[in-house]
Write a structure and sequence with these properties.
disordered C terminus; 5-stranded parallel sheet; single chain; 991 residues; alpha/beta; 20-stranded parallel sheet
């Protein structure tokens, strides 16, 4: 009977770990759970005369606990499935996508652990069917685990008895096994978590460390085993966490979910639900017996949609699932559901009363029609039916998200409809009492002619790409509007009513590429503080801008028409003289120009002295055609700047990934020097204040270090492109003093350098050269034969990401070294490595082991890279391996021929079974390398297709991983394996 009670306890708390249950108040279940644990502890207590518990009392208590009500759970999970789980029967459906399911199930198991780990009565945890130590190391690194426990250790407990395990734990803590009393006392004073890998299931976890427990501390022992027959306070089973897949298959239909055309999409749709039980049920019911692949694809996109809201990921998933379901309901059912969201009683409503209400509101014509709609809404889980169908209610979570969905009509004070796919703006009534209107990222093409908005203060319309015309009277009745955003629309001109908005403080018109002329009436907006016209195509700036005395932020972009039909200018100036000097409160000024516009050369000569006299200015973006113009700036130490210096030829098209250009512009102080010759002193002076440097098409420099150690010492971000005289990025002979070159650099990206032969050269490497570098990318360097020397690798301790692409002469990343100089690990902090289009690459680092921290590796078009390269991996943190499917298949086919004969020659970690090796700041690594066979890595291998753009596929894989990380890790981690969307510099389809 106690076993039956514990089975019910484990199943109930598994289900309660899923959304939406995990965000509900579950005090009744928690109290019951604690009572069950107390019974277990009583049974395990020594049965001496003083503590002996009467069997009759225990029997009565267990019987009472077995009758604990779980009706709230059975509303979502059918009772027969719960019974099967409690009785160890297996209802699960098979699938050919087991690696994908396993990846998600690991996330569910982690969430299960985090949900209950803080309950003090839980001391022992059994985690079953953990096929390798990946889950163990993920748990060990979880922020809540790190914060909660003083000590977190793991032990290989394979074939060890209780006393041997305890001795191993004591030794791991630094005590001798003969100092048992001292170790026991130490553990009683600590918050500890002990993880036992390959734990033998015949050992009772409760027999371990009986002298270690302290009720005032948080103390846990978790066993990872292949089976879960022994008792534990909390059991987490991989098998049981296939519950959601079982529910999904049952609701969709076996024939549909296992058909050859639907199954891959079915797994993808299920995965997108991220373990949300209610969202999974909603989607599955909506897709029941659906064989149309296009509808499945629509469901996949709909659930994965990320609206620009502050909702939690659970709320977002449920909202998206509801939006998909509502889109497939009829008009009448939608109206009836909207009524239920507003007026249905929280506890229950008699169905007859509900139907009568619908009739009174003219939502239905007949009772039979109402019965059909009720049944339809119950079938898709939007309503719940109970008491033999006589009563109806709505789940609280569904009601909450429906209110959000219908908010424009149900709560007119705040209209928040961003990213909802609206084709039309809300009706005029919705505007009347709204304080704020969020209508961005929709498909609105027309706005009301003259909405009455007496209290509207904020209006966001950006991202409506179909919006071309605004009615002349649209802004007529918005007397207190203060913030207006019309960015990313196709408007060509502004209505006159806009210039009557005398309270307007912020006007944002970014990325309106059809907008060409700013009217002089802009000067009537006398309270305007922010005017953003970046990425528009205005011809010039009206002199009336000078009538905006409160302006603090001005961003403009100027472009000339290219069709020859140009305006007759009364002036050869883009910005009128003495205009900038009148804007004395300016704090941020950004001016983008067309490089071919000859007017700018005259304009910059006039306005530069005015700019330099702005005392409040702390951000400045300018294009300076001549290096000598830098002499006008006396002090750049207190200013963030974006300077483009040199002759910027528009006809030359940059081949840099767009994302890299954006990332460069996000740095604090940026200098882009293009088409230069020599190393002018003015450039070196500004470079000394810069945190980012972009050297573009320099004509004469042979190395980056030619710019001087002092000028480069503050750089954190550096990009080089088509500097064809550079043969080495760093030449130590260029430095006559200091501890190193580029010693603050964090990010280095090199592109299209046709004569580059090495990253570093010199007689001896200074100890801090590139010491803090975290990201190194090398694209299209046809003469580059190697990336690292052994000495340079020793400096790159902090390197986290390496990308080498289209460097066809490289056959090994590092020059070979003699055995006496070998080290334990190369690049110990490297987390991500991507190697693409390298046909001669045969080895990573010549047999040396690479980074114990590696999480992401990507290979493409590296046909010479054979199975031996896996010998160089020493990381058990791998989450992703990417490559062509046929390349991976070839590795596995050659495994028996190549792997086993070379097994004795492989480089094994210099540590014993179950022991740890310490690396500063890094997680412990298990011993051995048997897990790094291709057959054991299939679960994390992501195939790349040759007929789809490589960059697109890498971005999609990254999106999948990031979504999973948001589910399983409450605190977002930095430094994870994130792909830049612009990884591929070839910008081509993979043939």
């Amino acid at each position: 009977m106690l076993g039956e009670l514990n089975s019910k306890k484990d199943v109930v708390f598994l289900i309660l770990s899923y959304p939406p249950f995990n965000s509900r108040s579950n005090e009744t279940h928690i109290a019951w759970f604690q009572d069950v644990l107390e019974i277990n502890h009583k049974v395990r207590e020594p049965h001496d005369k003083e503590k002996k518990v009467k069997s009759s009392e225990l029997y009565s208590e267990i019987k009472r606990l077995l009758h604990h009500s779980i009706h709230d759970i059975e509303a979502h999970v059918p009772a027969d499935i719960i019974v099967d789980m409690c009785e160890w029967r297996s209802p699960w459906h098979a699938t050919t996508n087991k690696p994908t399911l396993d990846f998600c199930v690991d996330d569910f198991m982690i969430r299960h652990l985090l949900q209950y780990i803080q309950i003090p009565e839980i001391r022992t945890i059994m985690i079953s069917e953990a096929t390798d130590n990946t889950l163990l190391f993920r748990i060990k690194k979880l922020p809540p685990v790190i914060q909660m426990f003083d000590i977190v250790i793991h032990i290989n407990a394979n074939f060890l008895a209780v006393k041997d395990i305890e001795d191993r734990i004591i030794e791991e803590l630094g005590f001798s096994k003969f100092s048992r009393g001292e170790a026991d006392k130490f553990l009683r004073s600590q918050n500890f978590m002990i993880l036992l890998y390959q734990f033998d299931s015949w050992i009772d976890l409760n027999d371990l460390g009986t002298g270690w427990w302290n009720s005032d501390k948080t103390q846990k022992i978790a066993g990872f085993t292949s089976d879960s027959s022994m008792p534990a306070d909390l059991k987490i089973s991989r098998h049981d966490h296939l519950l959601l897949w079982n529910l999904f298959c049952r609701n969709v239909g076996k024939l549909v979910v296992h058909s050859s055309s639907s199954q891959p999409l079915a797994v993808d749709v299920w995965r997108q639900c991220c373990g949300h039980l209610l969202a999974t049920a909603l989607i599955a019911r909506a897709l029941k017996d659906v064989n149309d692949v296009s509808i499945w694809q629509h469901a996949f996109r709909a659930i994965g949609f990320l609206p620009m809201t502050s909702h939690s990921i659970e709320d977002r998933i449920l909202f998206n699932a509801l939006a998909f379901v509502l889109g497939h309901l009829g008009s009448a059912a939608n109206k009836c559901l909207k009524y239920c969201a507003s007026y249905l009683e929280m506890e229950r409503t008699h169905k007859v009363d509900l139907l009568e209400s619908w009739m009174k509101e003219d939502l239905i014509g007949t009772l039979d029609e109402g019965e059909q709609i009720v049944q339809q809404l119950v079938n898709v889980v939007l309503l719940e039916s109970f008491q033999n169908g006589e009563s109806i209610r709505m789940v609280d979570e569904v009601r909450k998200e429906l209110v959000n969905f219908y908010k424009a009509e149900m709560n007119p004070l705040l209209v928040e409809l961003d990213g909802k796919g609206l084709m039309e703006a809300p009706k005029s009534e919705a505007w009347k009492e709204a304080n704020e209107m969020y209508l961005m990222n929709n498909k609105i093409s027309k706005l009301p002619d003259n909405p009455k908005c007496p209290v509207l203060s904020k209006l966001f319309l950006q991202g409506n790409l179909q919006l071309r015309v605004i009615s002349p009277s649209f802004f007529q009745c918005m007397p207190i509007l203060q913030i207006l955003n019309l960015s990313q629309t196709k408007i060509k001109c502004l209505p006159q009513s806009l210039f009557k908005l005398v309270q307007l403080r912020k006007f944002i018109l970014r990325s309106c590429r059809l907008f060409k002329e700013l009217p002089a009436e802009i000067g009537d907006l006398c309270l305007l503080e922010v005017l953003d016209l970046e990425e528009t195509e205005i011809i010039d700036l009206p002199v009336t801008i000078g009538n905006l005395p409160k302006l603090t932020n001005l961003k403009v972009s100027f472009y000339l028409p290219v069709n020859g039909n140009r305006k007759n200018y009364s002036s050869n100036r883009i910005i009128p003289q003495n205009l900038i000097s009148r804007l004395v409160l300016l704090e941020e000024l950004s001016i983008d120009v067309n490089p071919e516009d000859e007017r700018w050369k005259a304009t910059i000569q006039d306005i530069l002295p005015e700019v330099c006299c702005l005392k409040r200015l702390h951000f400045l973006k300018l294009h300076l055609p001549k290096v000598s113009l830098l002499n006008d700036f006396r002090d750049l130490s207190c200013m963030n700047f974006r300077f483009i210096v040199g002759n910027h030829l528009k006809c030359v098209i940059s081949r840099l990934p767009h994302e890299l250009v954006i990332k460069f512009g996000e740095q604090e102080s940026c200098l882009k020097y293009l088409n230069g010759e020599g190393i002018p002193s003015e450039i070196k002076e500004v470079l000394g204040h810069s945190t980012a440097f972009f050297l573009d098409r320099h004509q004469t420099a042979t190395s980056l270090s030619k710019f001087g150690v002092k000028a480069l010492e503050n750089l954190k971000f550096c990009v080089l492109e088509e500097c064809n005289q550079i043969v080495a990025l760093i030449n130590e002979n260029d430095a006559d003093h200091g501890d190193g070159i580029l010693q603050s650099l964090v990010y280095l990206s090199v592109h299209n350098m046709k004569n580059l032969r090495s990253v570093w050269e010199g007689e001896s490497l200074r100890r801090r050269t590139l010491f803090f570098l975290k990201v190194l990318t090398l694209y299209s360097c046809p003469k580059l034969t190697t990336v690292f020397t052994f000495d340079l690798v020793q400096n790159l301790y902090h390197l986290e990401e390496l990308l080498v692409e289209d460097c066809p002469e490289i056959n090994c990343l590092m020059l070979p070294t003699d055995k006496q100089r070998r080290t334990t690990w190369l690049l110990p902090n490297l987390k991500k490595m991507s190697l693409h289009y390298m046909p001669k690459l045969v080895s990573l680092c010549g047999g040396e082991r690479v980074s114990p921290s590696l999480e992401w590796v990507s290979f493409y078009d590296c046909p010479s890279l054979k199975i031996q390269f896996l010998n160089e991996f020493s990381s058990y943190n791998l989450k992703v391996i990417i490559g062509e499917a046929d390349w991976w298949s070839a590795l596995k086919q050659n495994e028996s021929e190549v792997w086993e004969p070379n097994k004795s020659k492989r480089l094994e970690p210099n540590i014993s079974e179950g022991r740890r090796i310490s690396i500063p700041g890094k997680a412990d690594q298990p011993s051995g390398s048997e897990g790094l066979k291709p057959q054991n890595l299939d679960g994390i291998f992501f195939p790349i297709k040759r007929d789809i753009d490589l960059r697109t596929q890498l971005a999609a894989i990254n999106d999948q991983l990031q979504a999973r990380m948001q589910i399983t890790e409450p605190t977002k981690q930095s430094g994870g394996p994130v792909v830049e969307a612009g990884t591929s510099s070839k910008w081509k389809q993979v043939a």
